[in-house]
Write a structure and sequence with these properties.
Length: 126
């Protein structure tokens, strides 16, 4: 059985998908980009602010499912430019304890929705 997770504290989906789906005790999130949930505007002044907005959006989705970053077991980071890896990793790392951080891959891609620089998805378990 699955339960669709939705919160107004994160951007509404811009297509036929859910912010997240809870199946049993496992949460599968859709990728989050740097859309501000209240204004619908992209936060792209610099890569750090963009990554911060992505993580805040993900935090809201996790919270809507009764979870935190401590529940995350796997992350996927999609970036447009691998030269931004250090800045994105610095922001991302602030949300996790290094000793218990989730598994992760980071992939450079050719294009992301709305031409953003970073998108992150996660899997979390209660």
């Amino acid at each position: 059985m699955k339960k669709v997770i939705f919160t107004t504290a994160a951007p509404a989906p811009i297509g036929p998908y859910s912010q997240a789906v809870l199946s049993g005790n496992t949460l599968y999130t859709s990728g989050q980009i740097a859309l501000h949930p209240e204004t619908g505007e992209l936060v792209t002044a610099n890569i750090q602010e963009e990554a911060e907005q992505v993580m805040q959006n993900m935090k809201a989705v996790l919270a809507a499912a009764g979870m935190t970053f401590d529940h995350v077991v796997k992350s996927t980071i999609f970036i447009m430019d691998m030269n931004d890896f250090g800045a994105i990793n610095s922001v991302y790392g602030a949300y996790f304890n290094e000793e218990t951080a989730p598994a992760r891959e980071t992939v450079q891609v050719a294009c992301l929705p709305k031409n953003v620089n970073v998108e992150i998805s996660m899997i979390a378990v209660l």
